[in-house]
Amino acid sequence: MKVAVYCASSTLVSKENLELGFELGASLAKLGHELVWGGGAISVMGEVAKGARKNGGITIGVIPERLMSVEFIDHDSSQMHVVKDMRERKGLIESLADGFIALPGGIGTLEELLEIWVGRYLGFHNKPIAILDPSGVYGSLRLALDDLTAMNFMKPGQHELVSWCSTIDNAIKHVTS
């Protein structure tokens, strides 16, 4: 299976998050899954790809032309798709992947996660989505989503379309089973 990973490109994230990315990539490869990701060679983006490749995995990057120097295109990728913009990037990642895992990240990661989540709810795809958050980075987000559900801003069933996971094994099982 091809698993898309949404994650941070910030070079300021903690070593713990870099290690999480590497271990997720390694675990995906060891289980025979291919990695689809944003194509960057820095931060968590780079580590997830390095972890996959170090364990014999295939990495499929998708990067917009404009970000090739910002996220530093991963020249070691098994395949690299250079696209014109973020909309094309997200669309291609969605079409390539069989499932999605979101790691802790910033607004870009959140935007990708929320878009794929809404797409599933609206029936544009039926691919599994997991949020891998072993250290509780998204705790406040989860509470906010619970509040939105309680106040009926989120419709019944929307919250359940995503699996919140605290371990790599659970996240991978959720998106590949």
Overall tally of domains: 1
SSE string? EHEHEEHEHEHEH
- Structure summary, number of beta strands: 7
Helix-strand category: alpha/beta
Keywords:
177 residues, alpha/beta, Rossmann fold, seven-stranded parallel beta sheet, 6 helices, 42% helix, 18% strand, globular, EC 3.2.2.n1, cytokinin riboside 5'-monophosphate phosphoribohydrolase activity
Describe the structure.
The protein has 177 residues and is an alpha/beta fold. The protein has one domain (2-176): Rossmann fold (3-Layer(aba) Sandwich). Helices cover 42% and strands 18% of the residues. Strands 4-3-2-1-5-6-7 form a seven-stranded parallel β-sheet, with helices on both faces. α2 links the parallel β2 and β3. α1 (15-30) packs parallel to α2 (43-54). The protein is globular. One of its GO terms (cellular component) is cytosol.
Short description:
The chain has six helices and seven strands, in the order E-H-E-H-E-E-H-E-H-E-H-E-H. The protein has 177 residues and is of the alpha/beta class.
Helices, strands, pairings?
Layout: E1 2-6, H1 15-30, E2 34-37, H2 43-54, E3 59-64, E4 79-83, H3 86-96, E5 99-102, H4 107-121, E6 129-132, H5 139-150, E7 162-165, H6 168-176
Parallel strand pairs: 1-2, 1-5, 2-3, 3-4, 5-6, 6-7
Helix pairs in contact: 1-2
Catalytic activity: N(6)-(dimethylallyl)adenosine 5'-phosphate + H2O = N(6)-dimethylallyladenine + D-ribose 5-phosphate; 9-ribosyl-trans-zeatin 5'-phosphate + H2O = trans-zeatin + D-ribose 5-phosphate
Family: Belongs to the LOG family.
GO molecular function, one term: cytokinin riboside 5'-monophosphate phosphoribohydrolase activity
